[in-house]
Amino acid sequence: MGLKQSQCATDDRRKHTRYELSVPIQLSLIDRPTIQGLTSEIGEGGFGATISASLEVGHRTVVTLIGYNPMEAVLRWIRGRAYGFEFLELSSEQQQKIRDQCRKLPLHCGSLDS
């Protein structure tokens, strides 16, 4: 298991390591109903989620993950029903909470797009 975790960490070219996290989320956008989804992974810079709505890259949203205060994010990529979001302007408290939570989670060994 140590080798697998080590490979995951070195193969990931992202700025922040990603960790497995599967929790319900709510996305709030201007002039649209709230969108429900499920995260697949999280890191200090953003998260991946599966949602059933149609969004475009660049959409800004307020996301609420279970156990977190609402956070601003922007959609960076789409692969089918999988969406990748980057956190925007997190407070130091939000950053620390994500960092602390990530330390307790298993590494996410997906591709850069998942």
In short:
The protein has 114 residues and is α+β, with helices and mostly antiparallel strands.
Looking at this protein, list some descriptive labels:
114 residues; alpha+beta; Thrombin, subunit H; 6-stranded antiparallel beta barrel; disordered N terminus
Would you kindly provide a written description of the structure presented here, covering whatever features stand out?
By secondary structure, the protein is an alpha+beta fold. It has a single domain, classed as predicted glycosyltransferase like domains (Thrombin, subunit H, Beta Barrel). Helix content is 18%, strand content 39%. The protein has two helices and seven strands; from the N terminus they run αβββββββα. Strands 2-3-4-7-6-5 form a six-stranded antiparallel barrel. The protein is globular. It starts with a helix and ends in a 12-residue tail after the last helix. The N terminus is likely disordered.
What's the average pLDDT? 85
CATH architecture: Beta Barrel
Please indicate the count of domains: 1
CATH class: Mainly Beta
Rg over CA atoms: 14 Å
Work out the number of β strands.
7
Helix content: 10-25%
Poorly predicted runs are 1-7
**Strand order, biggest sheet?**
2-3-4-7-6-5
How far apart lie the N and C ends? 21 Å
Q: Under CATH, the topology is which?
A: Thrombin, subunit H
Topology diagram in text:
Layout (H helix, E strand, L loop, with lengths): L1 H10 L7 E2 L3 E5 L6 E9 L2 E6 L8 E6 L5 E9 L2 E7 L3 H11 L12
Antiparallel strand pairs: 1-3, 2-3, 2-5, 3-4, 4-7, 5-6, 6-7
